[in-house]
């Protein structure tokens, strides 16, 4: 694939036209071109028709791999059952695993992969590398196909802004698609905040420190995080980077520009969290294999006020969450009046990605499975099963929402155009999974200074930028 050069000005025009001003525009990401021809190893295509717009072979077997994490796999089985009902002659199989890369990566290399893969969890397949190695199907054919609910509307036009853009990875195609809107931020119990602490959600960092001080006086930590997965801290810090320095700061991170991680805005955010650590407002620990579950359980039991998390937490922590907990998410507080973006700026990307391997024996069936996943009934089922916001427009209109989802919807509405996305987190997975994770592991224990944290991330970005194997996007 090589590097992709992007004309930023043209990209912004396309983004504005598409209503995507909340997203860093990425040139070729704004649309997906036709791509990919079928290899001999794939199942023979069926005949295209109104009922079968992707030309799925009626009796071709389908294998689905689902990440067995916070969402479980019941929501996916609903779609697999839809597929079996539609293609009754086909053998369908769905497998759940916590280790997607371990289970699927060897099969990608061997050339005998599943037909559709939920590329999620702590061990995902590296999308950029898989694209470079031509191991993924370009999903443009799916995006341009008639939607399940309305044959006059393309699949791409039923999806909320950002879904297609997140899946392009700087190419002219589209190789990964998400199914849920993830809202990241500072998650908390409204009951604890308003009743136990008699406080309001902090809109400034000074107010945040005041809430933490009040909590400490009652024997409660202001914050906690999963020590085994310290990269969770990005879920609270990222929007603050944008708030403090504007979109240019996070876009510089996306494009691996020199100095991005040494910006004054980045420094101010690290300094803010350094103060939390120095004042011992942070409950540490939770270093085991299930660190995130341990952290969430401590939180729902009232040992901490705030956790950096995503909107999957409502479902993942449901077994330990008291009925009167009133789970909510808050946008990251403003640092001071010099912030470039307002309070309410939100890190809310599409999440829970799916891909169709290039050498899947039934790639057409894999895309058809996703077309069904993007039906309103499957999207609504996703919401009902896991309390997550589907990316299908209007899928949950009129439904009664649980507290966390309701809070997420309100946060998205309040943010308006001030929604930010961390493309670098998706494009350069190692930078997030390894470099940032290692930095925050030391930083949140007070074992790394602000300067050391910034220097380490700056060196990581430079290393990735020079790596000839990096599927990199450049702006001009």
Automatic annotation (TrEMBL):
Origin superkingdom: Bacteria
Residues making up the signal peptide according to the UniProt record: 1-30
Keywords: Signal, Transport
Signal as UniProt keyword: yes
Chain spans, region Disordered: 109-131
Compartments in which it is found: Cell envelope
Matches recorded under InterPro entries: Bact_solute-bd_prot1, Chitin_NgcE, SBP, TAT_signal
Pfam entry (one): SBP_bac_1
Keyword presence, Transport: yes
Family of this protein: Belongs to the bacterial solute-binding protein 1 family.
NCBIfam families: chitin_NgcE
Name of the protein in question: N-acetylglucosamine/diacetylchitobiose ABC transporter substrate-binding protein
Organism: Streptomyces albiaxialis
């Amino acid at each position: 694939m090589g590097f992709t050069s992007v004309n930023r000005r043209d990209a912004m025009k396309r983004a504005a036209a598409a209503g995507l001003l909340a997203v860093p525009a990425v040139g070729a990401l704004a649309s997906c071109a036709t791509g990919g021809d079928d290899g001999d190893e794939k199942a023979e295509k069926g005949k295209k028709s109104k009922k079968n717009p992707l030309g799925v072979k009626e009796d071709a077997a389908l294998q689905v791999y689902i990440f067995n994490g916070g969402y479980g796999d019941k929501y996916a089985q609903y779609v697999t059952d839809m597929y079996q009902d539609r293609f009754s002659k086909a053998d369908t199989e769905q497998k759940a695993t916590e280790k997607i890369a371990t289970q699927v990566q060897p099969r990608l290399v061997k050339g005998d992969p599943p037909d559709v893969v939920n590329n999620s969890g702590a061990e995902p397949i590296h999308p950029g590398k898989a694209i470079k190695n031509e191991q993924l199907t370009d999903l443009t054919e799916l995006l341009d196909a008639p939607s399940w609910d309305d044959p006059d509307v393309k699949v791409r036009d039923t999806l909320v802004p950002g879904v297609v853009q997140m899946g392009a990875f700087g190419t002219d195609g589209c190789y990964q698609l998400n199914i849920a809107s993830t809202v990241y931020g500072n998650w908390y119990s409204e009951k604890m905040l308003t009743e136990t602490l008699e406080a309001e959600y902090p809109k400034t960092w000074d107010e945040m420190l005041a809430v933490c001080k009040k909590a400490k006086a009652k024997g409660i930590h202001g914050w906690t995080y999963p020590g085994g997965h310290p990269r969770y801290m990005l879920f609270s810090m990222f929007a603050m980077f944008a708030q403090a320095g504007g979109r240019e700061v996070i876009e510089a991170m996306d494009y691996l520009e020199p100095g991005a991680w040494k910006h004054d805005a980045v420094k101010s955010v690290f300094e803010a969290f350094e103060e939390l650590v120095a004042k011992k407002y942070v409950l540490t620990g939770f270093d085991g294999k299930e660190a995130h579950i341990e952290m969430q359980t401590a939180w729902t039991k009232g040992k901490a006020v705030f956790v950096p998390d995503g909107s999957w937490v409502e479902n993942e922590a449901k077994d330990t969450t008291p009925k009167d907990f009133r789970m909510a998410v808050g946008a990251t507080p403003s640092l001071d009046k010099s912030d470039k973006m307002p309070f309410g700026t939100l890190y809310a990307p599409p999440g829970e990605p799916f891909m169709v391997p290039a050498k899947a024996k039934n790639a057409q069936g894999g895309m058809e499975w996703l077309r069904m996943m993007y039906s309103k009934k499957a999207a609504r089922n996703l919401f009902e099963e896991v309390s997550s916001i589907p990316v299908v427009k209007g899928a949950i209109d009129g439904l009664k929402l649980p507290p966390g989802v309701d809070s997420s919807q309100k946060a998205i509405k309040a943010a308006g155009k001030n929604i930010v996305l961390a493309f670098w987190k998706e494009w350069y997975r190692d930078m997030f999974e390894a470099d940032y994770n290692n930095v925050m592991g030391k930083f949140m224990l007070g074992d790394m200074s602000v300067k050391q944290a910034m220097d380490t991330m700056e060196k990581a970005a430079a290393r990735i930028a020079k790596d000839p194997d990096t599927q990199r996007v450049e702006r001009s």
